[in-house]
Amino acid sequence: MQRQIAKMVMLAGLAVSALPGTTTTLALVMGTAVGLVLGNPWPQRSSLVSRNLLQISVVGLGFGMSMKEVVQTGQSSLVFSVVGISFTLLAGYLLGRVLKVGPNTSALISAGTAICGGSAIAALAPALKAKDEETAVALATVFTLNSVALLLFPVIGHLLQLSQATFGTWAGLAIHDTSSVVGAAAAFGSQALATGTTVKLTRAIWITPVVLAVAALNGADRKLKVPLFIIGFVLAAALRSLVPQYGALWTGVAAIARQCLVVTLFLVGAGLSREVLEKVGLRPLVQGIVLWGVVSAATLTALLRLGLA
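Predicted structure:
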């Protein structure tokens, strides 16, 4: 009986999320409520759909930006990305040692925080030769903090009266997963969304060199691979710039992509189950929280001191 109710509520939540006017925050809250109270009736299927829909949405968001905007934002955030990733990986390693978290779990949490959340963890786990339970703990830790970030960052941004550009850059550099970056940025404003998406994708590119370096150190065989949705995002922006006379069409595609993102975040929230929370041990969770807090505070401080607010 409960499963049937969960199915009906899940379908209703999907329908509401697809309606114009439904915000990313509302979609996440609805999804989380379904996942924690009733349980997601289709966990594997919704996880697959949310991952694919997110990538499609990111490509669609590219139609809302010109190539000039993408290049300028990517260039301006490049130094922050390199410094931030290096600092996060080092700080995560030291925190893991202090808290006596397993080396693989610690490295996965650090990489997820530094680069691209679950995508970085999934890519790095084979290179580290990590066990399934180590990967599961890291994913659960990062996934939990992602949900918190989507709700918390816009509130902090408004309290501090951050500009659209500063908030977008901060979200793109300090939030783990692409879904939560674009969700938090979309809740803050359209310019923040454009900036946050570009900064995040610039950061995500670093999955490849980090995984290759770790694989070389551990003797694991990993082939060079760049996420296709990043290429799609750049191509979409290029197409908008090359054929500007269809501006109304490109704007419409970007609007559809933003609504698809709302649906994605409902599915992401529905994936946060009691079983996921039970996988997160105290020490890995403390490492994840402290590392994320330090990175977020340091990133925002650097942005404000450089006069980007």
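Summary: The radius of gyration is 19 Å.
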